[in-house]
Write a structure and sequence with these properties.
CATH class of the largest domain: Alpha Beta
Shape: elongated
Number of domains: 2
Oligomer: single chain
Strand order of the largest sheet: 7-9-8-10-11
Order of helices and strands: HHEEEEEEHEEHEHHHEEH
Strand content: 15-25%
Length: 239
Amino acid sequence: MTKLSRALRCALLPLLCLPALADEAAIRKNLAERLQLSKIDEINKSPIPGLYEVRVGSDIFYTDEQANHLLQGQLFDTKQRKNLTEERIEKLTAINPKELPLADAMVVVRGNGQRKLYVFEDPNCGYCKHFEKDLEKINNVTVYTYLYPILGPDSTDKSRNIWCARDKNKAWQDWMLRGVNPPNATCDVSAITRTLDIGRKYKITGTPTLIFANGTRVPGALKGEDIEKALVDASKTPS
C-alpha cells in the first residue's frame, strides 16, 4: 500500500486507521496497570515512528505502542537543531497574561513602560532578591509583581504587611533591596488569596516565576541581560 493510497483510505474510511487508537488504549491500560500512571492528559505520536509522547500535566514522557518501555528526557530534531521536548513544555506551561488580574499586582512603570513583565515572588525568596537587583537595570518596562507567599507563615505575614502598607511598592523594595522589614499592617488581603489560587491553577511551584507578554513562562531568576533578551523576544512574538 502506498503512502498516498493509505492516506486516501484513511480519509474515506476512518475505521481503517484504528490502529493508532488501539495503540493509545494499550498505552493507557499498560501504564495504569504497571506504573499506576492513570492520570494521563494526552497521548500523541512523536516525530519518531513507533514512539509516542505521553503528557501528564506539564511532564512529558515517551513510550512505544505497548508501553513496554518508558523514557523521560529531551527529544532533539538534529536537522533543525531544535529541542522538541523543551518547545512542547514551553507551550504547555505558557500563561496568557490577559488572564492575570492586574489589580492584584503591585505595579512599577519604568521609562515608557511599553514592555510588560509579570512576576510571582515570595518576600523570603533569596533568588527573588537577586532578581529584583537585576530588574532595577531594566528600562522601558511595566512590571506587575504578584505576592506569592509559599515559603511558610513568615512569608504570609510579610506579604500581608507589604500589601497593606501605605506605599506597597516602597515597602516591597525596602524589604527586597535594603532588608528593611515592613511594619505590621492589616487590610483586605483577598488579592493575595486570589494570587495563590492562580498559582495552584497554573502549577507555579517556585519563585520567582516570570511571565512575558507573549505568554512565555520562565521558572527562576534571570540576570539583567537575560531579562532584556526575553523582553525583546516577547515583543517580536504576537501575544
